[in-house]
Amino acid sequence: MISLEFVVIDTETTGLSPYQGARLIEVAGLVVEEDWKINIDKHFHSLINPGVPIPVFITRLTGINSRMVRSAPPAEEVLPAFFRFLSGRTLVIQNAPFDLSFLNHYAKKLGFPELTNPVIDTIWLSRRLFCGRHNLDLILARLNILAEDRHRALGDVILTARAFVKMAAMIGKEEVIKMASQKVSGRKPPF
Fold this sequence. Notes:
- This protein has 191 residues and is an alpha/beta fold.
- It has a single domain, classed as Nucleotidyltransferase, domain 5 (2-Layer Sandwich), CATH 3.30.420.10.
- It contains eight helices and five strands.
- It has helices at 56-62, 66-69, 75-86, 96-109, 122-129, 136-142, 153-171, 173-181, and strands at 6-13, 24-32, 38-47, 90-93, 119-121.
- Helix 5 packs across helix 7 (153-171).
- The relative contact order is 0.18.
């Protein structure tokens, strides 16, 4: 059996697309170790100063306002350390295309290569188990996980990690490891 270390990641942003000017305002990552234990001590978290005012609707959603990020470091300072934290680990992301679009946009902008880590999208796992929609709140409800600290990067990675471990146990950890061992071309589900 292949052993892997997973890192659950999440971003918070000023909008929906980095290609339309939206910027990162928070990143977080949390390690799920080879024995499928969530290691809260192995995490990365940082607010990011986007250099622009945070829209009111984003503040309502995340609770992050412009005053909170005023003294936070810019993406150029945060992301190199975050990319090192991700190195060599399989990424677990709720709605991977969204977060990867921002991270790869910034990687290119900062002169780093795009992320090539294997990726497991928790939406893919949810589709294997449940019918209907697959947003994080619905996944958590189906798994009887209380949704606390939603729409903050660290809170969401903790919740996503708990959902990932539960869904992996339901699907079969060997199957999840097999999925993680495959490079996902175009980030489409490997099944």
